[in-house]
Amino acid sequence: MTQPAARLVTLLGPGGVGKTRLALQSAQTFAARFLHGIVYVSLQEAESGDDLLRALAAAMQLSLRANVPLMEQLREFLRDKQALLLLDSFEQIAENAPLLSQLLTAAPELKMLVTSRRRLALQWEQVLPVNGLEYAHVEASEAAQLFLERARRVGGAIADAAVTRTAVRRICRAVEGFPLALELAASLTRVLPADALASQVESQMVSLASDMRDAEGRHSSLRAVFDSSWRALDDAERAALPRLGVFRGGFDARAAQMVANATPEQLAALRDKALVRQSAPERFELHQVLREFALERFDDARERTDTLQRHADYYMQFLIARRERIEGAGQLQAVAELRQEFDNVRAAWRWASEHGDATTLDAGAAVLYRHLEAVSDFSQAETLFALAAPHSYAARARYGGVLNFVGKLEDAERELTRAATDAQNAQDLVNLAFCWLCLGNLALYRGDFDTARARYDQNLDAARTLDNAVMQVDILNNLGLLEAYRGDFKQARAYFQECLALATRIDELRGMAGSQLNLGMLDGDEGDYDAARQEFERALPLFERVGDRRGVSVSLGNLGEIALQKGRLDEAENLFREAFVLNQELALSEKAANMTRNLGRVAFKRGEYAGAERFYQSALAEFRRLDSKRGESFTLDGLGNIAL
What we know:
The chain is mostly helical.
């Protein structure tokens, strides 16, 4: 990590050998060397290159844009960052390693520390094999100390007698110092003396050596201890452990009981035997390797299928149960709950899609759409709704909505039109109204204001018929935007005010923030800067509450513009700088360049012409890099004013 040429270091070793712990320790040691910090990215649940990119974006809290490829946004965000990415458990997506090369090429100060069971086979890669803890000298070895500490923690039968020291040495040697294997073995000292445990582990190793496949050879020591742990379980624990293996990204006690029929007492017993980890007071998980071993222990394929079906049923109902809260005052809590369980929800959605469960998909589509919209994960949304669209017209409608967001207008129109027909045939006014809203948005993007108005009117009539206040908030805001684009500011203001009143009544924070932002923009266009400032100041904390960082950046920039127009130059500079930093963090390069241009305007107002020119030249270079003709034109005007 201290060598400039070391851009990508892979800690290579089998599961349970301690790669993650070593990576975290190394990252902490070198933290001061990275100006923009260290970003930990767990890839345990990743299955594709898209999953990798989404995990990176989430770990960096990158606010995603719908119509820009995710890789492009990541390259843009990282290009000037001096940071360390710690990518944990890369082996299951190793074939997507070339994506890392693209990021390293785009960001010359970026480094990566990767843990993997497989080499990445990249030109950038430097491989450091990770072996188990040192165990040659039992009294002082790391392996022995870890074993003894864990054994004492679980109340194991450990003494300082010579026979125990010899047994500990044998155990450490048999498991090759693997930390996870040592923890499992230590838990068995509650039921076996150390010397008997050593003999059992050694015997199991001999048995494994005779039939272990080459690909699994380096897992043999861990599997040997797992097999010993398995034999120490009672029948109920043996039944529960494989079922717990179906969870993705952790689970709570209620889910364990409903899906795996595992009681709290069994969870506690499996935790004490180091087979299940308690990651938080109400949260449990399995190490990835132990999860793989556990899944192998299903008695038959039917039992595994039945458990996966229960898992899908449970988490689809978990999703559907948030239908009311995801659209009202409880939205923040609902989003937080879905974010925590999203790996399980995603697996359940995929299962329902693969098995054509139309009823469940129809019921869950709107909730999943609202959640992914709230967290700006349009790439994930496109993938998941594409899977479900053939089986569910509600999912097809949301698929069309996502395609609209990402700029695939012809595909969006096709999917939305078909979904609207299916919804109409099913007399489903809720989903039909959603299609009308999206088709209206599509027409607005194309500049077809008459068609947009017709679709919006259909949506508004439906929302009022259904007495659905959230739907009315959405459409009133869109009607305001449509009239503003048409130049009818009076009618636009009326819609925004109606939207704000309704959103306030039902405590729909995003609708409140959006309508206040739009009202402020109208005020600014009409020259009423004091009124505009009040609206922006009301919108800003609402965007902060809902975690909409793009809304925050727009509000800051608008407040800076008002301060500039009112001659409050210090205030304007501070607001533009704050907005610039946030836009950089969000990889909103054009908006960041515009804030640089605004700083040039502040300097010009102060008579600091040399400083103004530096800001303008910096902004001009960025606008040209982005091929932003509009930004380039405004900046050249600023440079022209200096020349005059």
